[in-house]
Task: inverse folding
């Protein structure tokens, strides 16, 4: 069983990557394979609204010049998809938005490619706006016919400077509980 997490932060190996790391520690203890993809430095383009994905129906976005088709392939291969973003002005990062718009549209154009896979959103924030960012990612999962896995709180870690999220013990515990719930559900589905 494979869980792929996308880190939509503009900052590599920051708080958002650390939150994914706490989740992965638990998943690995449960015997589940994990992979993290960091979008930092990739500069993914936004959706260009050409609707070619509905004409081509080949499981790919027409824009081939960046990392998004590789991300879509990884999503299609995964049993669970985690999308993580820092909060930027009370919403998700540009990188995360490019990913969910293009993967979401390509999925819809191809009969909902991620249907019934598990999904979980993770957000980091300094102070406020994280719930809105969390909701934005969950809209991608729920329109894609995916199954959203919950935890003991909304999946939000607090911190500003790189590494500060380690001091948010409740945020870390939320990742551990999410990992246990995801592993439990994956075993129920896949045996
Ligand atoms: C452009 C920008 C906008 C931000 N907007 C918010 C915000 O609205 N609310 C908030 O609590 N933190 C905000 N932050 C802080 C980040 O969400 C926070 O530092 C987060 O931990 C960064 O995660 P990273 O280390 O993975 O990059 C903002 C940071 C940046 C760079």
Result:
């Amino acid at each position: 069983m494979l869980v792929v997490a996308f880190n939509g932060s503009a900052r590599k190996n920051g708080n958002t990557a650390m939150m994914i790391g706490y989740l992965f520690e638990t998943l690995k203890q449960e015997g589940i394979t994990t992979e993290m993809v960091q979008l930092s430095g990739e500069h993914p383009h936004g959706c260009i609204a050409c609707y070619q994905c509905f004409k081509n129906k080949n499981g790919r976005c027409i824009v081939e010049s960046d990392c998004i088709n590789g991300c879509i392939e990884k999503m299609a291969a995964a049993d669970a998809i985690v999308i993580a973003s820092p909060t930027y002005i009370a919403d998700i990062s540009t990188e995360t938005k490019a990913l969910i718009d293009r993967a979401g549209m390509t999925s819809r154009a191809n009969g909902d490619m991620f249907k019934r896979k598990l999904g979980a959103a993770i957000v980091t924030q300094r102070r406020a706006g994280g719930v809105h960012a969390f909701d934005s990612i969950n809209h991608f999962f729920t329109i894609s016919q995916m199954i959203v896995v919950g935890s003991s709180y909304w999946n939000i870690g607090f911190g500003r400077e790189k590494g500060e999220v380690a001091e948010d013990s409740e945020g870390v515990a939320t990742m551990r509980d999410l990992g246990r719930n995801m592993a439990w559900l994956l075993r129920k589905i896949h045996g």
